[in-house]
Specification:
The complex is a heterodimer.
Chain A lengths: L12 H14 L12 H8 L3 H13 L3 E3 L5 E3 L6 H22 L4 H12 L7
Antiparallel strand pairs in A: 1-2
Helix pairs in contact in A: 1-3, 2-3
Chain B lengths: L3 E12 L2 E12 L3 E5 L6 H9 L6 E6 L8 E4 L11 H11 L26 H14 L4 E4 L8 H18 L2 E5 L12 E6 L2 E7 H7 L1 E5 L9 E7 L2 E6 L15 E2 L2 H8 L5 E2 L4
Parallel strand pairs in B: 3-7, 3-8, 5-6, 6-7
Antiparallel strand pairs in B: 1-2, 1-4, 8-9, 10-12, 10-13, 11-12, 11-14
The chains are: A mainly alpha, B alpha/beta.
Amino acid sequence: MNLTIDAKSPLPVYQQVIQAIKLDILSGGLRDGDLLPSIRDLAKLLKLNPNTVAKAYYALEAEGFSENRSGSGSRVKVPPGRQDSLRKAMLESEFRNFLEKAVSLGFSLEDVKQLTERIKKNEPSHR
Amino acid sequence: MSQAIVETRNLSLGFSRKKVIQDLSVVFAKGEWAVIAGRNGVGKSTLLRCLAGVLLPDAGTIIWAGEAGPNKIGFISDRLSLFEDWTVERAIAFHCRVFAVPEFDDRLLKRLNLSQKDKIKSLSAGERAILHLSLVLSQKPSLLLIDEVMHMLDPYLRDLFIEALIEIMAASQATVLTVNHTFSEIERIPERVLVMDRGRFAIDETTEALRQKMKKIVSRDPLPADLPCIFKKTDGIYKEYYIYPFREGLRTDRAVDFQDIALPEIIKAFIGGGYEQKRMA
């Protein structure tokens, strides 16, 4: 599993854990039936409060991304049929963050569009 | 709030004429990690000693939950005092006898490069801190009180220390209270921050709430008068203003950039750190 937590991010840590695990599931890193690390192991690995990890795990379970069979830990569940819409939602949220940043730097949506075209054509963006 | 592990009611304590703790009431919950911050001499260590049961208050009461009996409170004082001429082995045997520990847990000590035959006086400050942690963890504590000791540790020992605390929280829902830690490695661990000032808590917030409510403005210009500034620091031509309490409504139609502040920076401001305090929290 490949998770990173950004201590500087304004997003609460448990939400970052949820996002990171979802991303790993949607990108195929975590597959249906895979065992998630125990709360204790993940807390130690990421230097997080075990309560934070537990909160994230409960939320993932509530959203149907994992299943907890008593005693055997949490297993990944890939929600059937929802993968495409979830991937789109994730792209949209990442893109929204990017656009907000671009606008705060004084760029217009037209600038972003032009930049996208230039990157597509592999042209240098500025001299 | 979930189940309390320890609670103080109207606690007061002074040394000679100086009041150190004044009418302080606070509840700590089972399984939480809280950081107690504040300048030197505001009463943090004194409060920990009271919670550990080694200092009696002049007035007020302390109520421990049944599971936080005297042998189940792990207290690490900033003095890290042990008899200097004893060996590590003897210190362990002594501690286990006093706190009725059936078996010493040597897993942490094994990660250090030392022998149980070594004298206490030959240990480095970091090794002493880890030894103390091993001793109190062997008590299987339900309440851990840790004074300013983490700054004595090198990055490797600090990781050991932190992982051991995470381990006991996950394993047995222990409550952890630490004083003044400002390390970026663990800035996202404590879920609650209490700032002590003149014997009481000026701030008591969840970490997330404090991060939401405290923002920074870096500017060359004077601050608009309506913004609630709590700290100010001058750095060359720039001034840093800490805004507290911040609310989203303050953001509207200003050319002002409210920046997030990491927890170590927030704590640093409260414990001094070159900031001028503009008003009380």
